[in-house]
C-alpha cells in the first residue's frame, strides 16, 4: 500500500474518537496535544476520559454509535474492538468523505496513525501502512537513541530567523551550507548545554559576517561504562556517531567501538592496569592537536570520566588551551558491577553510605584513611585493587573490620566474562589466588556483599564461603 504522507493541522477542528478504553484514551491525548476539539463517543469511558469530559476538555457523546456523531468532524478514529461496529463507522465516514482510522485494521482505515518522534517543532512520523505497527515502534526507538534532543530547539531557532537567513543567503546552495553549519557547528553545541541566548547570538554573528564560520574542533570526554554496550547513554552514542577522532582506553571493547562512525580515526591510548601505558601528557597533546585541526574528538573512557578517570585533569588542560569541551557522564564500575552482581551498594538495614576508593598507584592503598576503611554500616568499593588485596585485607582487619565481613570480587563486570567471587574478608587473598582473579576487577566490602550469594543474576557466581545472609539490624530511635 502506497500512502501519501501528510501532517495535518487540526487546531480548533472537531475530531471524533469512538471508544472509551485505554486505546481511545491514548488517541485522545495525542489529538488534544495537536489542538483538536475532541469528541468521544461510547456508552462508557474510563476514569481519565471521564475527568476530561467533566472539566470540559472533551465532549462525551454517551451511548451507542449513531451516524449523527460524524456531523461536522474532519477525522474519525474508532477503537471499539468490535469489527462490525468499526466497519459501519468506516463506511459512514467514507460516504461523507471523512478520513477514518480503525485501530489495528489497515483494510478499513483511510489514514494511519504513525509512530512519532517528537522534537517540536520537528516531528518525525514512521508508518508501515498498518502492516506491522510494532516494527514501526522499534524503528522509532532506534531513532530516539541517536536523534539529538537539542535538534528541536535548533529547528525553532532556525524558524525564528528563517527570513533573515533567506535574505542573507539568496543562493540556495549557500543557504544549505549555512543550515549545515547550524547543525554541525557551535549553535547546536550551545543548545545542548542549555545556552539558548549564546546559541542565538552565534547564529546572528554568522549572519552578520555573511558566511558560515570555519569548522572549529572540540573534545568530548565520554564515559563508556564498565563494558556492556547496552549501558552507553544516548548522549554517548550521539557523540560516537559524530566523532572524527576517538582516543580510547584499551578496556573499551570492540562492540562499543563498533557503534562509532565507520570512518572515525581510532587511537588506542592505553590506560589499562598492568598493560601498556601511553603517558597522560601525550594523550592530552593528541587531543589538543586534533581539536586545533578542526576535528571533533571523543576521549572515550571506561566507566565515568570523573571517577578515577583523570577526566578532571584532561578538562583543565583543554580549557586552559581554549578548546571547546563537553562531558558525557558514564555509569561508573561500582554502580554497574554491583548491580550486575545483585549487590545493593546501600541498604536501609545494612549500609547508609558508600565509599569509592582506588588502590591504583604506588601509595594509593597505603594512604587510605582509617575512616574510609573502618566506617561502620558503610560499603567500601575498591577500584583497581587486585594487586594489593593482601595489604588491603590486613589493614581492614587491623582497623576493626570483622574477619567474617562479606566481600565480593567482580571480575570483568557487566561483560559475558563476568565472575563474582563471594566470600568473607579473612579469606579474600586466598580467594583471589585460588581463582586467579585478574584485572579489571572491583572489590566490594561490607554486609551488602553477602547479597551476591542469593541475588547474583548475571555471569558466573563462585561462592567459596557459606552463604551468609545479611541479618536485619534493629534501628533504635532516641
From TrEMBL:
Q: Where is the Sirohaem synthase dimerisation domain?
A: 151-207
Q: Does the keyword NAD apply?
A: yes
Gene3D superfamilies, sorted: Cobalt-precorrin-4 Transmethylase, Domain 1, Methyltransferase, Cobalt-precorrin-4 Transmethylase, Domain 2, NAD(P)-binding Rossmann-like Domain, Sirohaem synthase, dimerisation domain, Siroheme synthase, domain 2
Task: Write one Pfam family the protein is assigned to.
Answer: NAD_binding_7
Q: Which residues form the Tetrapyrrole methylase domain?
A: 219-428
* Biochemical pathway: Porphyrin-containing compound metabolism; siroheme biosynthesis; sirohydrochlorin from precorrin-2: step 1/1; Cofactor biosynthesis; adenosylcobalamin biosynthesis; precorrin-2 from uroporphyrinogen III: step 1/1; Porphyrin-containing compound metabolism; siroheme biosynthesis; precorrin-2 from uroporphyrinogen III: step 1/1
Q: Which reaction is the catalytic activity of this chain?
A: precorrin-2 + NAD(+) = sirohydrochlorin + NADH + 2 H(+)
What GO MF annotations does this protein's record show? NAD binding; precorrin-2 dehydrogenase activity; sirohydrochlorin ferrochelatase activity; uroporphyrin-III C-methyltransferase activity
Q: Where is the active site?
A: 249, 271
Q: Which UniProt keywords apply?
A: Cobalamin biosynthesis, Lyase, Methyltransferase, Multifunctional enzyme, NAD, Oxidoreductase, Porphyrin biosynthesis, S-adenosyl-L-methionine, Transferase
The record ties this protein, via CDD domains, to: SUMT
Return the InterPro entries for the record: 4pyrrol_Mease, 4pyrrol_Methylase_sf, 4pyrrole_Mease_sub1, 4pyrrole_Mease_sub2, CobA/CysG_C, NAD(P)-bd_dom_sf, Siro_Cobalamin_biosynth, Sirohaem_synt_dimer_dom_sf
Q: Ranges for the Siroheme synthase central domain?
A: 121-145
Tell me where the transmembrane regions lie.
none
> GO biological process annotations for this chain's record?
cobalamin biosynthetic process; methylation; siroheme biosynthetic process
- PANTHER family for the chain: SIROHEME SYNTHASE (PTHR45790:SF1), SIROHEME SYNTHASE-RELATED (PTHR45790)
Family named by the database record: Belongs to the precorrin methyltransferase family.
Protein name in UniProt: Uroporphyrin-III C-methyltransferase / precorrin-2 dehydrogenase / sirohydrochlorin ferrochelatase
